Automatic annotation (TrEMBL):
This is MerR family transcriptional regulator. Keywords: DNA-binding, Repressor, Transcription, Transcription regulation. Residues 1-69 form the HTH merR-type domain. Pfam families: MerR_1. One of its GO terms (molecular function) is DNA-binding transcription factor activity. The keyword DNA-binding applies. The keyword Secreted does not apply. InterPro entries: DNA-bd_dom_put_sf, MerR-type_HTH_dom, MerR_fam. SUPFAM superfamilies: Putative DNA-binding domain. It comes from Alicyclobacillus acidoterrestris (strain ATCC 49025 / DSM 3922 / CIP 106132 / NCIMB 13137 / GD3B). Gene3D superfamilies: 1.10.1660.10. The lineage of its organism: Bacteria, Bacillati, Bacillota, Bacilli, Bacillales.
Amino acid sequence: MRIRELAERLQVSPRAIRFYEESGLIAPKRDDASGYRLFSEEDAWRLQTIVALREMGMSVKQMRAVLDEIDHGSTDKVTDYLEWQRQSLYAQWLEIADIIEQLESAVMRYRAEGVLHQNDLVRAVKGIRGMRQARENWEDRWHFDDLASKFDEQVAQVSNSLAIYYD
Protein backbone atom coordinates (compact mmCIF):
# COMPACT_ATOMS: atom_id res chain seq x y z
CA MET A 1 0.00 0.00 0.00
CA ARG A 2 1.11 3.57 -0.54
CA ILE A 3 1.79 6.21 2.08
CA ARG A 4 -1.61 7.91 1.82
CA GLU A 5 -3.46 4.60 2.29
CA LEU A 6 -1.33 3.70 5.30
CA ALA A 7 -1.75 7.17 6.79
CA GLU A 8 -5.54 6.94 6.52
CA ARG A 9 -5.59 3.41 7.89
CA LEU A 10 -3.50 4.27 10.95
CA GLN A 11 -4.85 7.82 11.33
CA VAL A 12 -1.40 9.39 11.15
CA SER A 13 -0.14 12.04 8.75
CA PRO A 14 2.00 11.16 5.72
CA ARG A 15 4.47 13.72 7.07
CA ALA A 16 4.81 11.73 10.33
CA ILE A 17 5.41 8.54 8.35
CA ARG A 18 8.14 10.29 6.35
CA PHE A 19 9.68 11.55 9.59
CA TYR A 20 9.80 8.03 11.03
CA GLU A 21 11.35 6.83 7.78
CA GLU A 22 13.99 9.60 7.89
CA SER A 23 14.68 8.66 11.51
CA GLY A 24 15.36 5.08 10.46
CA LEU A 25 12.46 3.57 12.40
CA ILE A 26 10.75 2.22 9.30
CA ALA A 27 12.16 1.31 5.89
CA PRO A 28 9.49 0.70 3.25
CA LYS A 29 10.35 -0.64 -0.17
CA ARG A 30 10.13 1.65 -3.18
CA ASP A 31 8.51 1.05 -6.53
CA ASP A 32 11.37 1.11 -9.05
CA ALA A 33 9.25 2.67 -11.78
CA SER A 34 7.44 5.39 -9.82
CA GLY A 35 9.66 5.84 -6.76
CA TYR A 36 6.60 5.62 -4.50
CA ARG A 37 6.98 4.06 -1.08
CA LEU A 38 5.29 0.67 -0.83
CA PHE A 39 4.30 -0.46 2.66
CA SER A 40 3.72 -4.09 3.55
CA GLU A 41 1.49 -5.40 6.34
CA GLU A 42 4.65 -5.84 8.42
CA ASP A 43 5.49 -2.16 7.82
CA ALA A 44 1.96 -1.24 8.90
CA TRP A 45 2.34 -3.25 12.12
CA ARG A 46 5.73 -1.64 12.80
CA LEU A 47 4.34 1.84 12.18
CA GLN A 48 1.40 1.10 14.49
CA THR A 49 3.93 0.11 17.16
CA ILE A 50 5.88 3.34 16.54
CA VAL A 51 2.70 5.41 16.87
CA ALA A 52 1.80 3.64 20.13
CA LEU A 53 5.29 4.15 21.57
CA ARG A 54 5.17 7.81 20.58
CA GLU A 55 1.78 8.23 22.24
CA MET A 56 3.36 6.75 25.37
CA GLY A 57 5.82 9.62 25.31
CA MET A 58 8.93 7.86 24.02
CA SER A 59 11.60 9.73 22.08
CA VAL A 60 12.87 8.54 18.70
CA LYS A 61 15.99 7.19 20.41
CA GLN A 62 13.90 5.22 22.92
CA MET A 63 11.58 3.94 20.19
CA ARG A 64 14.57 2.76 18.15
CA ALA A 65 15.91 0.83 21.16
CA VAL A 66 12.53 -0.82 21.79
CA LEU A 67 12.08 -1.70 18.11
CA ASP A 68 15.59 -3.20 18.00
CA GLU A 69 14.73 -5.39 20.98
CA ILE A 70 11.42 -6.41 19.37
CA ASP A 71 13.33 -7.29 16.18
CA HIS A 72 15.70 -9.46 18.23
CA GLY A 73 12.87 -11.11 20.17
CA SER A 74 14.08 -9.78 23.54
CA THR A 75 10.77 -9.75 25.39
CA ASP A 76 12.40 -9.08 28.78
CA LYS A 77 14.17 -5.97 27.50
CA VAL A 78 11.03 -4.71 25.77
CA THR A 79 9.17 -5.17 29.04
CA ASP A 80 11.93 -3.27 30.86
CA TYR A 81 11.66 -0.34 28.43
CA LEU A 82 7.90 -0.22 28.85
CA GLU A 83 8.26 -0.38 32.65
CA TRP A 84 10.78 2.49 32.60
CA GLN A 85 8.44 4.56 30.48
CA ARG A 86 5.55 3.80 32.81
CA GLN A 87 7.64 4.91 35.79
CA SER A 88 8.60 8.10 33.98
CA LEU A 89 4.98 8.89 33.14
CA TYR A 90 3.92 8.10 36.70
CA ALA A 91 6.56 10.52 38.05
CA GLN A 92 5.29 13.20 35.68
CA TRP A 93 1.73 12.48 36.77
CA LEU A 94 2.70 12.87 40.44
CA GLU A 95 4.42 16.15 39.68
CA ILE A 96 1.36 17.45 37.86
CA ALA A 97 -0.86 16.34 40.75
CA ASP A 98 1.36 18.31 43.16
CA ILE A 99 1.13 21.40 40.97
CA ILE A 100 -2.66 21.07 40.78
CA GLU A 101 -2.86 20.77 44.57
CA GLN A 102 -0.74 23.90 45.07
CA LEU A 103 -2.84 25.81 42.52
CA GLU A 104 -6.07 24.70 44.20
CA SER A 105 -4.84 26.08 47.52
CA ALA A 106 -3.92 29.41 45.93
CA VAL A 107 -7.27 29.62 44.10
CA MET A 108 -9.26 28.85 47.25
CA ARG A 109 -7.46 31.52 49.23
CA TYR A 110 -7.81 34.03 46.39
CA ARG A 111 -11.55 33.36 46.18
CA ALA A 112 -11.93 33.73 49.94
CA GLU A 113 -9.90 36.94 50.26
CA GLY A 114 -9.96 38.43 46.77
CA VAL A 115 -6.21 39.01 46.87
CA LEU A 116 -3.41 36.96 45.39
CA HIS A 117 -0.81 36.70 48.13
CA GLN A 118 2.85 36.53 47.25
CA ASN A 119 3.26 34.04 50.12
CA ASP A 120 0.88 31.61 48.39
CA LEU A 121 2.89 31.74 45.19
CA VAL A 122 6.21 31.35 47.02
CA ARG A 123 4.79 28.47 49.08
CA ALA A 124 3.46 26.82 45.91
CA VAL A 125 6.82 27.08 44.16
CA LYS A 126 8.68 25.77 47.23
CA GLY A 127 6.22 22.92 47.61
CA ILE A 128 6.47 21.91 43.97
CA ARG A 129 10.26 22.11 43.98
CA GLY A 130 10.47 20.23 47.27
CA MET A 131 8.33 17.36 46.01
CA ARG A 132 10.30 17.20 42.76
CA GLN A 133 13.60 17.18 44.63
CA ALA A 134 12.38 14.48 47.02
CA ARG A 135 11.41 12.22 44.11
CA GLU A 136 14.65 12.88 42.23
CA ASN A 137 16.83 12.23 45.28
CA TRP A 138 14.94 9.23 46.59
CA GLU A 139 17.16 6.33 47.54
CA ASP A 140 16.17 2.76 48.14
CA ARG A 141 17.93 2.65 51.51
CA TRP A 142 16.29 -0.59 52.58
CA HIS A 143 16.70 -2.26 49.17
CA PHE A 144 12.97 -2.72 48.65
CA ASP A 145 13.44 -3.00 44.88
CA ASP A 146 15.82 -5.95 45.29
CA LEU A 147 13.58 -7.57 47.88
CA ALA A 148 10.52 -7.15 45.67
CA SER A 149 12.10 -8.95 42.73
CA LYS A 150 13.31 -11.79 44.98
CA PHE A 151 9.87 -12.01 46.57
CA ASP A 152 8.24 -12.25 43.14
CA GLU A 153 10.60 -15.10 42.22
CA GLN A 154 9.82 -16.93 45.47
CA VAL A 155 6.08 -16.54 45.00
CA ALA A 156 6.37 -17.88 41.45
CA GLN A 157 8.27 -20.93 42.69
CA VAL A 158 5.85 -21.65 45.52
CA SER A 159 2.72 -21.07 43.45
CA ASN A 160 3.79 -23.72 40.95
CA SER A 161 3.93 -26.32 43.71
CA LEU A 162 0.63 -25.44 45.39
CA ALA A 163 -2.55 -27.18 44.40
CA ILE A 164 -6.07 -25.94 44.95
CA TYR A 165 -8.62 -28.55 46.01
CA TYR A 166 -12.35 -28.11 45.75
CA ASP A 167 -15.06 -30.07 47.62
